[in-house]
Amino acid sequence: MRKSAEEARRTRDRIVGVAVSRASTLGLTGLTIGALADELEMSKAGVVGPFGTRAALQLAALDRAAELFAEAVVAPGRAAPPGLPALHAVIDAWCDYMVDSPFPNGCFVTAASCELDGQPGELRSRLRDTVVRWRRFLADQVVAAQAAGDLDPGADPYDVVSLLSGLAMTANQEIQLLDDEGAAPRARRLMRAVLAAHAGESAR
Asked: How far apart are CA 57 and CA 54, in angstroms?
């Protein structure tokens, strides 16, 4: 029984891994059970079986992408001391992630946001929740930096979040579409400049 459960888990993980990779290139809505079955050399029933429906498989792929992003970008921020050290750790990890993304088409969440922003439904809602959590995490780091005196306490944390996010989305486009090797270093420099522009008393 235990061996069968472990085999089922490994099969499910393998399916999700391939689904995430294909969705990065084709989009979540472009995932088809038939194409996945061919690539995995499985039956269509075998592919969809662990999830029940194609929609549930799409959600699992989105969740896996979010987990990988959190491991690569959020975790370094949580491990660093609160304040500017945590924000710098996040910025460095974020820029590294955009260059060395595990997905063929760069940042999965950015690509999915462009794909799903005008398509109401469960996928869009799950993606929205993911982005809201990420933005809240960033805002919390800004608030911690304000409390430490590193950033101006009068600054709106979500103003800072919007500036950082805009730079990241621009960098992702420059990396993926324009093949600009200077995109990540530029984004890192400009993100740090945003923080410097909002410096608190202890950072001046």
From this structure: 5
